[in-house]
Amino acid sequence: MLLLLSLGFSVTGPGFLSVENLLNIGAQSTILLLIALPMTLIIMTEGLDLSMGAVLTLCGVVLAMVMVATESLPLALGAALLTGLAFGLLNGALVSWLEIPPFVATLGTLGVAQGLALVATDGQSVTGIGEAIPLIYAGQLLGVPLPIWIAAVFYGLFHWLLYHTRFGAYVFALGGNREALKFSGVRINVYLIAVYALGGLMAGVAALLLTARMNAGHPTAAIGLEFDAIAAVAVGGTTFDRGNGWLPGTVLGVLAVGVLRNGLNLVGVPSSVQVAAIGLLVLVVLLIESFKGKA
User: Fold this and answer.
1) Is there a domain that residue 292 lies in?
2) Is-contact 148 27, C-beta < 8 A?
3) Which of 7, 75, 120, 246 has the fewest CB atoms nearer than 10 Å to its CB?
4) What pTM value is reported for the model?
C-alpha cells in the first residue's frame, strides 16, 4: 500500500518525490509514530486507547504553560511527561483492576483530558514559549530533521523492549494467552498497567514535538490523532486479537498515512476528505487481510 500510494502521488502530486518533501513527510510523521509505537503494544494486549490524542493535547498545553511560567525546558518537559504518565496509569487501572472495557475506559479519559485542556487555556492557544522548543522541530543533524532522529531513537527503544526483554514477551502473552500467563504466576495487572502508562509517557514526548512544530500549545491540536495511530497500527499488520503485532509494520503504516495525507494536500484535497481517505485505506487493508485469512 505504501508503494502504491507513493507511485500514485509521484504522478499526480507536483514535487512529491523532491528530497525536501520526502524529509517533510518524515518529520511530520514522527509525532504520529511516537504514539503509534505504544498503541501497537496496547492493541497487542487486546486493548485500545482512544484518549491518546486528547492526552497529547493536554500534555502540550501543560508543556507550553510551564514553559511560559518558568522558561525552563526540563521543568516543562517533566510536567508534560508526568501529565501523560498520570493518564496512562489511570487508563491502565481502569482496564486492569476495575475490568472496564478499554473502549469505554479510554473514551471517558478522552473527555476528561480534552475538558482539562480547554478549561486550562479558556479555549485559547498558549503562546510566548520562547525559541528553545521550536528549534527542536526546525533543527537538523547531518541534513536530517531532528524529529526524525528522535523518532528513530524511540523506535530503537521500543524494538528492544518488545523483542529482547521479558516485558515484551509478556506483551505478546497478554494478547495471545493471558490465562496461561496468569497461571504461570505473572502479575498480569502490573504489566497491563505498564503498557498503558508507556502510552501516556509517549504522549508527553510527542507533545514536545507537536508544541515545537506549532510554536504554541493548542487545546485542540491533537484531537483525533489517535484515529491515525490506530489506522497506522492496523495498516501495519497488528491485529486486535491473539497478540499478533509487528513493530516494523507500524513504521510502514505511519509512513503510509503520512504519504496519503501529504499527497492529498499536494493535490488540494480538503482535510475533511483526508480523514475519509484514511478510513478507506484501513478498510482496504483489513479486507485484504480477511481474504488472506480465508485463503
Assistant:
1) no
2) yes
3) 7
4) 0.92
